Amino acid sequence: MASIVAPVLFIQCLLSILLTTTLAAPINITRETFRTCRPGDWVGIPADCCPPKVIKGPIVDFCPQHDASKPLRVRKALQCLSGHELKTYTRKLERGYALMRALPDSDPRSFKRQNAIHCAYGTGSFIQDGSTNLTIDIHLNWHFLPWHRMFVYFHEKILQKLLGDPEFSLHFWNFDNSVTATPRHGSRGCYKAGHFVPPMYNDPSKATFEANRSFMAFEPNRAVDLAFDLSQWNPAVGPPTFPNNTVEEQTRMNREIMHRSMITLANTTNFIGKAYRVGDARIVNPAAGAGTIELWPHITLHTYIGGWMLQPITAPIDPIFYPFHANMERLWSVWRKLGYGNDDPTDPDWLDATFLFWDENAVMRRVKTRDFVDLNALGYRYEEVNDASWIFFDNSTSPGAP
Ligand code: C2O
């Protein structure tokens, strides 16, 4: 008997190894992934941020459902808010954050727990089901854009719920905008270019302030550096050093880098980032996996702002993370509309990647990338702003362009 069973088992085992190693499959986060979560790291910096190992209650499939008879909510550009609108928005956001920070750590919607879930997803703390060493990461690969859209989406839902205002929209930091006084439909203009840190995030009296940032981020009239030296991204190599560019110099560099990341270098593979599926090992070198906008302006701005923002273990502790990432995903939508054959991947391993998030009712949701590619289906849109200054930037005349 044993002589027959052994070869059969061997063949079954071989088959399953062949199947799991040769058949690619989308990343899939499950109860098991949470159960096997273990401390991870970011460039060798240890991270201990696993959520509770047991997911209580059901996991409910997320299905985007926007009632087409209702208008889309609008996420607006922060630099274009003024007067009453700015006051109302600031007051709401402050109240939202006070309520979110007051939730106990046992509540997955608390400010702290939202940071922890980003940390777990971003430090190789989750292991691919059935593997002992292959981890899951949502940076430096093609999950970066959709995963962060999901993360900000649920953050906004939680704010809506805490505020009792289902129409509340999280506005965005239009950091790529270097045009002062953009005319808007109607009579208003934007008070300032977008590439300054939005004042409400730099005002120590506000809940949106964070003291743990690099000194550069606090200079109110300094344009942020989207072209920041990328070799300084790794906190393990020491604190970054900052150039001292004038606003004019910085503006030119920012336009150039946006043009490069969104157009010159940005075909679909380069823009979305490297494939990352079941069986793939974690990518640790940004240049080896990240899409163009994940490198510039994303990593560059994280580094430039510094403090908590310097690494995925802590980045969402700084409230600026959220309007910053809202603009990142707005740029994704802009990229799709630019032409040049730009389009999202059609690979099912991208579309069917499945993640788990707690929603505004602390219910666990199973979320697929394919449900986060169409903003309108999710019920919101971005205010139109002026992207022309970098779209039409003439790359050929830029000193130092590669
Ligand atoms: Cu998960 Cu801007 O980072």
From TrEMBL:
<dbReference type="GO" id="GO:0004097">
    <property type="term" value="F:catechol oxidase activity"/>
</dbReference>
<dbReference type="InterPro" id="IPR008922">
    <property type="entry name" value="Di-copper_centre_dom_sf"/>
</dbReference>
<keyword id="KW-0560">Oxidoreductase</keyword>
<dbReference type="InterPro" id="IPR022739">
    <property type="entry name" value="Polyphenol_oxidase_cen"/>
</dbReference>
<dbReference type="InterPro" id="IPR050316">
    <property type="entry name" value="Tyrosinase/Hemocyanin"/>
</dbReference>
<keyword id="KW-0186">Copper</keyword>
<keyword id="KW-0732">Signal</keyword>
<dbReference type="Pfam" id="PF12142">
    <property type="entry name" value="PPO1_DWL"/>
</dbReference>
<comment type="similarity">
    <text>Belongs to the tyrosinase family.</text>
</comment>
<dbReference type="InterPro" id="IPR002227">
    <property type="entry name" value="Tyrosinase_Cu-bd"/>
</dbReference>
<feature type="signal peptide">
    <location>
        <begin position="1"/>
        <end position="24"/>
    </location>
</feature>
<keyword id="KW-0479">Metal-binding</keyword>
<feature type="domain" description="Tyrosinase copper-binding">
    <location>
        <begin position="139"/>
        <end position="156"/>
    </location>
</feature>
<dbReference type="Pfam" id="PF00264">
    <property type="entry name" value="Tyrosinase"/>
</dbReference>
<dbReference type="GO" id="GO:0046872">
    <property type="term" value="F:metal ion binding"/>
</dbReference>
<protein>
    <recommendedName>
        <fullName>Tyrosinase copper-binding domain-containing protein</fullName>
    </recommendedName>
</protein>
